[in-house]
């Protein structure tokens, strides 16, 4: 095939040119810089062409390509008519692919479907790590499942991967921006580059990823019937991750634009840190499903070494162009268009290893209570059946302590203020082997993290971790505090708060009643109570 790669001298475009020439395609490297295009073309024995995607395309069409790949980007900055180049390909009867990871651009390509079918060509957007590879992994992992609850993906490149301006610009563009995430059947706003979580991608590599928006969020809930779709990305060096997290926090408050000088500065700093870290990176795609054997977490994970991680975003396009006749005509996002086996074949000449794991899933409370969990009423069991993110809503009331000490503690832990009959919601999410609980009392929010440590249930509020002596009595679940620490420092018994807290069922509904008393004085800090039911959304 004769294939033109627009932006073929960029970070990922160059990798695609390499892969396509290995497959004996006739490849032309195209872009605005004739010097860069010529240099890259000479490296791989390809042709070159100076062309601007928004300018005169006559020289490009004169080469009569079979397919054109847009690897230029950043796709979010393609202006008022972002699909002008794709439309031009359709008009010329040329197959079109791009490596876009911008959600709006990728999802919107379907508007060209009728025109592409009429022209007898395929037009595919997102033929890259997301959504092409991630969706192929999901399609394979959910086979035989009766219910798809959660799709959780992470991409964690090594620090010694090359840095391109388009990639840096794309990350900074959305850093701190709000976007919708499908969670338990509803779209929940999240801030980009927030809520870190750990990923084990194999070969002993465990890294943190941060929430960012990708096409998967807009496409996978409908495509796979998933209730929740999560995606995170992370850099290898903590200083880079936390710098972006600070920028995200600042932009979340002030909403300032990203100037060109900041992109240049951060690109320079990223290159300055290049010698640190490793050349190993990878990807993890996990699905939580219910099948005939119960609830399972099925994970496909991939590790790329020897600096070959940057080839991965180009693999899907390579696979498509190996067998273009198998791709249906029309325009669509690249969701499950190629098989995972074909992707493995497309990585066969790279330093990449993959594996698929399956493990049974048991919620935290059922795991801890063991047989005692069966003694709980159905509503309490259901609330703690956290196989994926769960959102419960209801009504409640709050009474705050009035002493100075109680008010100080209430402010420190961000407990809600006095109120009666207010809306309450709780979002419970599996998190690093435990659960994250985010409570909202009429918009007043506070969160905690539950987990197990040395066989005991714990709940953490910031630096404070309390050990809970959970027990079931008279169809109620009780939560007394039996120990605590600040960071690694244990608290003496007299410095512990007293908790009189219980969960129970009444009239078929889940109810909660939580009273906390201050250490030293025993003065009431907060008392909140109410009912919850599973969100209908």
UniProtKB/TrEMBL annotation:
InterPro entries: DUF4166, NAD(P)-bd_dom_sf, Sacchrp_dh_NADP-bd. It comes from Yoonia maritima. PANTHER family: CARBOXYNORSPERMIDINE SYNTHASE. Residues 376-532 form the DUF4166 domain. Pfam families: DUF4166 (PF13761), Sacchrp_dh_NADP (PF03435). Residues 3-123 form the Saccharopine dehydrogenase NADP binding domain. This is Saccharopine dehydrogenase-like protein.
């Amino acid at each position: 095939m004769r294939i033109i790669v627009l932006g073929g001298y960029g970070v990922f475009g160059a990798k695609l040119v390499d892969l396509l020439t290995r497959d004996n395609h006739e490849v032309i490297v195209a872009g605005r810089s004739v010097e860069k295009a010529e240099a890259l073309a000479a490296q791989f024995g390809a042709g070159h062409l100076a062309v601007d995607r928004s300018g005169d395309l006559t020289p490009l069409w004169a080469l009569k390509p079979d397919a054109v790949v847009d690897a230029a980007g950043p796709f979010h900055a393609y202006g008022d008519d972002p699909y002008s180049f794709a439309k031009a390909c359709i008009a010329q009867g040329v197959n079109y692919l791009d490596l876009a990871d911008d959600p709006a651009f990728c999802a919107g390509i379907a508007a060209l479907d009728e025109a592409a079918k009429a022209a007898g060509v395929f037009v595919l957007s997102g033929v890259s790590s997301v959504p092409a590879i991630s969706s192929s992994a999901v399609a394979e992992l959910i086979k035989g499942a009766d219910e798809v609850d959660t799709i959780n993906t992470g991409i964690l490149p090594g620090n010694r991967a090359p840095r391109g301006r388009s990639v840096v610009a794309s990350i900074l563009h959305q850093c701190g921006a709000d976007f919708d995430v499908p969670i338990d059947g509803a779209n929940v706003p999240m801030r980009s580059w927030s809520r870190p979580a750990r990923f084990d991608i194999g070969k002993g590599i465990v890294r943190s990823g941060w929430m960012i928006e990708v096409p998967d969020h807009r496409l996978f809930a409908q495509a796979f019937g998933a209730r929740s779709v999560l995606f995170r990305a992370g850099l290898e060096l903590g200083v880079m991750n936390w710098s972006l997290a600070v920028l995200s926090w600042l932009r979340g408050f002030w909403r300032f634009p990203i100037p060109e000088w900041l992109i240049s500065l951060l690109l320079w700093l990223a290159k300055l840190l290049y010698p640190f870290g490793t050349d190993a990176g990878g990807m993890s795609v996990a699905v939580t499903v219910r099948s005939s054997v119960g609830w399972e977490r099925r994970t496909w994970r991939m590790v790329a070494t020897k600096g070959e991680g940057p080839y991965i975003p180009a693999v899907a396009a390579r696979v498509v162009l190996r067998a273009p006749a198998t791709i249906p005509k029309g325009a669509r996002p690249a969701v499950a268009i190629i098989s995972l086996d074909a992707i493995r074949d497309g990585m066969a000449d790279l330093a990449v290893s993959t594996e698929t794991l399956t493990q049974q899933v048991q919620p935290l409370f059922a795991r801890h209570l063991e047989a005692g969990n069966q003694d709980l009423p159905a509503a309490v069991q259901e609330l703690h059946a956290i196989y994926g993110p769960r959102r419960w809503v209801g009504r409640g009331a709050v009474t705050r302590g009035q002493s100075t000490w109680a008010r100080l503690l209430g402010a420190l832990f961000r407990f809600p203020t006095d109120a009666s009959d207010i809306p309450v919601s709780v979002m419970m999410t599996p998190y690093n082997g435990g659960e994250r609980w985010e409570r909202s009392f009429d918009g007043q929010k506070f969160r905690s993290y539950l987990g197990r440590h040395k066989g005991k249930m714990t709940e953490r509020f910031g630096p404070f971790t309390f050990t809970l002596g959970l027990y079931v009595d008279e169809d109620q679940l009780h939560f007394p505090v039996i120990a605590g620490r600040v960071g690694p420092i244990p608290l003496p018994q007299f410095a512990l708060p007293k908790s009189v807290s219980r969960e129970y069922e009444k009239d078929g509904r889940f109810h909660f009643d939580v009273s906390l008393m201050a250490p030293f004085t025993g003065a009431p800090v907060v008392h909140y109570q109410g009912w919850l039911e599973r969100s209908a959304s």
